[in-house]
Design goal:
elongated, alpha+beta, three-stranded antiparallel β-sheet, 2 domains, 9 strands, 6 helices, single chain, Butyryl-CoA Dehydrogenase, subunit A, domain 3
Length: 290
């Protein structure tokens, strides 16, 4: 007879929801921060002078260098009409993602502490989280793929005409570098772009965690009933659960396990296995300790 090591206890349902809520909060803060910093930057150096340009969400960008220090200029006044439209769209989508993230954080934290009387907020919370995730994931892709084309459309005036020379240039690539005539121009993603990527990853992880516990006790009465059920289980000790020759654990009350008829999972109703190593019941169907 084969004996396998019992799996380690996973996070409780409450712990999973709290973890997801915290990830949502961090992601939302990252999104909010990304709206205030540059998403794309270009550095132009040569002849003892250097100019740094940073494109941020909204209607204006920053140019630093020369004798004027840091100057804020609108995209339109620089002849970057299409680039300006792109970054105004980034600001709009970013605000949607941030607001949806904030709402999702509130719903998730309240759900983790069983603050709702019904399960109706579960699909709402998942939907709002998905909206925030989709919006956040769209932003870096939109900028990386859309900015070269926007630059190319604006290359007849302003900074666009100065930047778009022999390939590679900002009109053909989101990242790149070129040296010519004693000057070096390098460009690529800036802090805001990377913050948005990190936020999208965290939102994805949070959504997966919330989805994994969507069927677990959620409403106030459900959580109380499940807690009362588990509190009624007496503690005890036994050997680790044996497995069959096929390697699956035997879902039965084992010798030395707590003497109780309540050996069925409160979630799915299937028989549970008592694991003495952790002094807890394990549901083979749900794959969680209860």
């Amino acid at each position: 007879m084969l004996v396998t090591r019992p799996p380690r206890p996973k996070l409780s349902v409450k712990g999973t929801r709290l973890t997801a809520s915290t990830l949502l909060l961090i992601a939302t803060l990252l999104l909010a921060a990304s709206m205030a910093v540059s998403w794309w930057g270009a550095s132009i150096s040569g002849g003892g002078h250097a100019t740094v340009i940073g494109f941020a969400p909204g209607s204006s960008y920053n140019a630093q260098g020369g004798f004027n220090g840091t100057v804020q200029q609108t995209y339109i006044s620089a002849g970057l009409v299409h680039v300006g439209e792109l970054y105004e769209a980034v600001l709009g989508i970013g605000l949607v993602a941030t607001i949806a993230g904030l709402v999702s954080v509130v719903l998730s934290y309240l759900g983790a502490f069983a603050s709702f009387k019904t399960r109706r907020t579960i699909p709402l919370s998942l939907l709002i989280t998905l909206i925030s995730l989709a919006s956040a994931a769209t932003l870096p892709i939109l900028v990386a793929l859309g900015q070269p084309g926007a630059f190319n459309a604006d290359n007849t005036s302003g900074f666009g005409s100065a930047a778009c020379g022999p390939s590679p240039n900002p009109c053909t690539a989101f990242w790149g570098s070129i040296s010519a005539g004693g000057s070096t121009v390098s460009w690529g993603a800036d802090v805001g772009w990377y913050l948005a990527v990190a936020a999208a990853v965290l939102l994805l992880v949070a959504f997966i965690q919330l989805w994994s516990v969507r069927n677990a006790p959620y409403a106030r009465d459900e959580v109380r009933a499940a807690s009362a059920y588990m509190a009624a289980l007496p503690s005890g000790s036994s050997a680790p659960p044996p497995t069959s020759s096929m390697g699956s654990a035997t879902p039965a009350t084992l010798s030395g396990a707590p003497s109780t008829t309540a050996s069925y999972c409160p979630r799915c109703g299937n028989p549970m296995t008592y694991v003495s190593q952790y002094s807890r019941w394990y549901c083979m169907t749900e794959r969680v300790y209860l």
